[in-house]
TrEMBL record:
It comes from the Bacteria. Coiled coil: none annotated. Residues 95-161 form the DUF5348 domain. This is DUF5348 domain-containing protein. Signal peptide: none annotated. Pfam families: DUF5348, DUF6462.
Amino acid sequence: MSGNLWMFSDMLDDEDAKMIQHEFVTYYEGADYYGLGLKVFTRLAHEAGAVYKIGKRVLIRRDIFEEYLRILRRKEDTSEMDENMKSEDNDMRQGALTLDAQTGRMDIRFDLENYYGGLHCGECLDILINGDWVPTRIEMGDGWYLTGIKTDNLEGLIVRI
C-alpha cells in the first residue's frame, strides 16, 4: 500500500482498518465490504483478473480489484462529463442582453419576439468575450452587473443560458 495512511486516519473506521490488514479477501468479505451484491462482486473480480485459487480457497487480491474499480470510476466520470457537455451545448440558447424598461429587469432576446422572460439575481450564464465563453453570474447592486466582468453597459452583450 502506498501513500500516507495517517493523513486519512480520522476517516477510517474499524472495518476499514481490518480490511487494510488483508491482501486477499473472500467473495463474501469483499461483497460485504464494497457494498456490492455477491454476483456483481464476483463478476467484477473476474473482469479485474484479481481472482486467485489458493489450495481449495478462492481469494480476491484487493489491490488489483481496487485499481480496477478506480479505472471503471474514471471511465464513468469521463463519460458522464462528455454527456453533460453534449447536453449543455444542445440545451444552451444564445442571445443578447437587454433591459426590460417595464420591469427594470435584464432579459435575454433570442430573436425579435422571443425573450428569456427576465433574469433574476444570482442567475448563472456564459458571456462571449473575445471569442471565448466566460461563465459569470448576474447580480443587482446599484444597477445590474456581471460578477468578474468589468463593463459599464450590459445591453447588447452576447450571452448563453
